[in-house]
Amino acid sequence: SVSPSPVGFGDRAGQDAGLDVTPTPPTDIPKASDSRGDSRRGSLCDRHCSTINNDFGDLGCHSHRPRGPAAAPSPHSEDCESCARTTLTAENAVEANKLSNNYKFGFKKWKSHVTARPWEDRSEIVKELYSDLTVLRGPAGSTVTCGNVLYLLLFGWWLSLLHGLVAAGMFLTVVGAPHGRLCWDLAGYFLWPFGKAIQKVEVPKSQEAGAGESSALLGGPGPGRWRPRCWEGTGHWRRVGTAAWLCLGYPPLALSHGLVCVTSWLLIVTIPVAKLSARSAARVLLLPPERLRVRRVRTTEVPPEGEVILCCYRAANPYYYKYSVHGLNVFAVNLLPLVLVTLLLGYLDSHNHLSSSTLKFSLALLSIMPLSYYIGMAIASISAQSTFAVGAVVNATFGSVTELTFYISALLKGSREGSACYAEVVKSALTGTLVGCVLFIPGLCMVIGGIRHREQRFNSRSAGVSSALLFLSVGGVFAPTLFSKVYGKLVCGECHNVTQNPLGHYLCHSCHLDLMDNNGTLYYSHVQPLVYTVSLLLPAAYLVGLCFTLKTHSHIYDIHVSGCHMPGHHHSAVVHWSRWRALVILLLSTLCMSACADLATEHISPILTNSTISQYFIGVTVLAMVPELPEIVNGIQFALQNNLSLSIEIGNCIAVQVCMLQIPILVLFTIFYPTNFTLVFSDLHVYASMFSVVLMNYTFMDGKCDYFQGTVLVMVYFILLAVYFFAPSPSGC
């Protein structure tokens, strides 16, 4: 028997794929008393947002077996023990739709939120990342930390020296003496700003009029009314000393703070220093000097006479890898300038005067990573805010755009140059993606997730469906190859008689199957029709898989998405990207992806011709797995949350899409634009792919795994990489 979920199942009619995506709060939850308010909200959420302990494992934000009498078994319980409902928690309807999309076959799995999370639902660690540098917290411990010392060595000493030199220059101008005194105080502040605060104080109008004679930095602030936050009064901007400051003192300091801001932002862990420098250049240095005072923090309360403008305690925080800007992870934001540099350098320096082809190729590949992230975020945002049909179309259209743009660009370049090497590289990349998604991604997720969780369980029935589709797709993709092995004619470029006997043994080199014998009768009459037939059957099988998992047998992915917030605590969904904004970003990212793919294929020729590494190895590693890095990160995050089902589905879905969508699209492309691409693979690709699928199916049979099984998958993947590394280059390269 299965313990009932405390959330009503409701009517499933009209729901996509049998998933209840309405984040409706439980109806049987007692109301919290007003005296406790939000203090009971977390405990009630823990009690009522529960997850059934079945093969899906821990999928929600809270997971335990709810108390209560046993419920009647599900109508599908006779077919599969793992068909009990699993409850997932969501903050709003958009997040609920995104969660259900993660379990839909053919939809891109996405870990990050597509809406802004409520502030009170975030952990204290995350809240600290977004906290403003205006809060006085008092001495919570020693300020001598590794991050603060690193700030002193990288930025503090020369920022302090620069402020001291500017102070001396402003004193020499006489009229800029107030700004000189401010710079002198800031020199000591920026040498070690931790545990200190910069305050804006109010001064009497008499002192404000004669600020050159008295300053709030030297004397105590006088009482007065508060004024706007910056640029108060027109008197400050009409002074001669202010003009001298803006011409002589402010530019070098603003430039230095801008340099510190950019550098510390790129380092990510030192983002607090970036905030410190940005606020210093944008506000502190532009305020009247008599309104500013630097003091050491000794209490936790803000003095009544001043407003805290800047207060910093830590220069570094290792948790800033979680930081996001408008829903975008900080790593993706920092890599965006790399895309612009790649495009400018690639198209403006076409003759390699400023850089080499190897550098441009490397930059183009690195630029694919953030663009893949933007495309995935845009697809998830559009799908979460749209109907099932729109989400399915967007996922099917743009889900494989990253790989297809590179493959098509490589085939076009090979066709222009008349080289078959590019087609072989594309086949290697296709095989590398298939093997990597079947072995490396699930294996790595098992290892990392197994370090935190002793044993992880997943839905063996859903994994079995993906395995069956993989067997079908691999058999279909390699059917033309097996047909060619049986009926093709083996042709060798060079043979030597090793026994000096005309009837003895011959040693042959550069052998390949010739399908063009007798004017290509075998290829055009037998192999090519088989390729077209397979290219039609594989997408049809993909549609059958969609119908099976989303309609007729949707109980395999029977997920109930419920709201985790109590009545009176609901939050409206504030999406990071609206549908139109996500669509524009999706189109722009796709366009930039095409340009980067074109640059990568344009500058890959020296690597293929001059490198001592096998072209097989380049295809199955660099070209295959670099575009999948965002998917690998998503899978690892799911595994760390004990949600191995989605980690496995990420790899399986990519592998299925390679065989059932990407390869048929490439075959369709060759019909309208003839290239050297044929659906006949080398023996190495056939054996590696089939062995990987068999091993994956054997590993996923029992519905549970640990880090040891993941280690086996990863080791087998590296063994196959070693085989590709030492393999000779394919014919035509």
Automatic annotation (TrEMBL):
TM segment ranges: 149-172, 328-347, 359-376, 388-409, 429-451, 463-483, 530-550, 707-727
GO terms assigned for molecular function: calcium:proton antiporter activity
Residue ranges of every copy of the Sodium/calcium exchanger membrane region domain listed in the record: 359-478, 582-724
BP term (GO), one: intracellular calcium ion homeostasis
Family matches, as InterPro entries: CaH_exchang (IPR004713), NaCa_Exmemb (IPR004837), NCX_ion-bd_dom_sf (IPR044880), YccF (IPR005185)
Keywords linked to the UniProt accession: Antiport, Calcium, Calcium transport, Ion transport, Membrane, Phosphoprotein, Transmembrane, Transmembrane helix, Transport
Comp. bias intervals (Basic and acidic residues): 31-43
UniProt-annotated location(s): Endomembrane system
Location, primary (coarse class): membrane
GO cellular component: endomembrane system; vacuolar membrane
Membrane topology: Multi-pass membrane protein
Region (Disordered): 1-43
Highest rank taxon of the organism: Eukaryota
Keyword Disulfide bond annotated: no
Domain Inner membrane component, chain residue ranges per copy: 146-196
The name this protein goes by in its record: VNX1 protein
Species per Swiss-Prot/TrEMBL record: Tachuris rubrigastra
Gene that this sequence comes from: Vnx1
